[in-house]
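Quick illustration for those who missed Monday's session on complexes.
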Amino acid sequence: MFLFLIFIINILLLLTSSSSSDLRPGFYSYTCPQAETIVKNVMKKALLREPRSLASVMRFQFHDCFVNGCDASMLLDDTPSMIGEKLALSNINSLRSYEVIDEVKEALEKACPGVVSCADIIIMASRDAVALTGGPEWEVRLGRLDSLTANQEDSNNIMPSPRANASTLINLFKKYNLSVKDLVALSGSHSIGKGRCFSIMFRLYNQSGSGKPDPAIDLGFRKELNKLCPLDVDQNVTGKLDSTPVVFDNQYFKDLVAGRGFLNSDQTLFTFPKTRGFVSLYSKDQTEFFKAFVEGMLKMGDLQSGRPGEVRRNCRVVNAHFLSQHKKMHNNDKSM
Ligand code: HEM
Ligand SMILES: *[C@@H]1O[C@H](CO)[C@@H](O)[C@H](O)[C@H]1NC(C)=O
Ligand SMILES: *[C@@H]1O[C@H](CO)[C@@H](O)[C@H](O)[C@H]1NC(C)=O
Ligand SMILES: *[C@@H]1O[C@H](CO)[C@@H](O)[C@H](O)[C@H]1NC(C)=O
Ligand SMILES: *[C@@H]1O[C@H](CO)[C@@H](O)[C@H](O)[C@H]1NC(C)=O
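Prediction with 2-acetamido-2-deoxy-beta-D-glucopyranose bound:
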């Protein structure tokens, strides 16, 4: 009787898994009960290997969910017939640590082949990245499907520039039903990780074409940044996004209040009246920041395109290609 019940529940799970709108906690509790532990263990290993990789993986959630929903489209490699998102303006020479997701996927495929989507891996791994670096932990809703395609142009058109000001960012987030509060809290993700000189050269030397630096930068901090990123620097050189880049805390907001934000899109949150109050609040109250951050991550994680999808076997390729490649390899084996 008990087995029969499990059987029925599994059928129900299979039936519902094709509709992506009903995300829920415990989605894999029957089909892959170890899923969340497996993800966390790989993230723990990544933390020991290179602490920054946790920030890099956490950033995936933003770049995935804003472009046609959380569907792992940004993990697809380019193919002769599809220009993917990896080389899009905001991603090229910038997104990194794709291999951490590969490692998670490999471990999950070993334990429960074909069950856990890459889109859900991004959501779980992002949650773990925050928790493992000192931030809050939360329960994630799961059951996403992976896209069948990716779109570089959409990414180019959507993802915000580091030059953006707060009113541009408010408008962008509003399109996703994300509030001003969500915007400020989610920007607190820059409590961990690094950015390139490339992303701040304009604000150091030619803010808005003025030929001058951004006046919102604290003078002492500007001197530090000028040293890190002189005019003739290799613009791939990186700097910390806040003064404690491997700890997820509210230091980012304290830095903004002090005029020590790295990106223009960060500092503008303190300059603009509509966002300033939240920056001040989070700089003084880490608990409020953590609460708002979790809310924002859950809302952002619920963004869905409603398009058809699948559970990819390899996060970099759609199953149709993956399987045909395997068949080819198999046929070659036979002919040898
Ligand atoms: C509000 C608009 C945002 C803008 C304009 C923005 C822009 C950027 C830029 C320019 C960088 C540095 C890239 C480079 O120089 O190579 C960066 C890094 C990062 N972003 Fe954002 N971001 C935004 C929001 C978010 C959100 C919502 C998240 C996640 C919830 C996020 C997570 C990160 C992380 C963790 C890094 C560091 C990555 C690493 O060290 O590899 N960002 N962001
Ligand atoms: C913010 O940036 C946008 C786009 O660059 C610009 O049109 C707008 O005038 C700026 N807003 C303010 C208040 O500076
Ligand atoms: C935002 O909310 C409105 C009203 O609830 C809904 O119609 C719309 O689809 C939502 N947009 C997104 C991107 O979720
Ligand atoms: C600053 O930017 C403006 C407008 O983009 C440009 O015309 C000017 O040449 C730049 N100045 C310098 C010193 O790069
Ligand atoms: C950064 O490095 C990449 C790859 O090595 C190179 O193609 C690119 O031109 C460099 N970017 C900048 C801004 O120097």
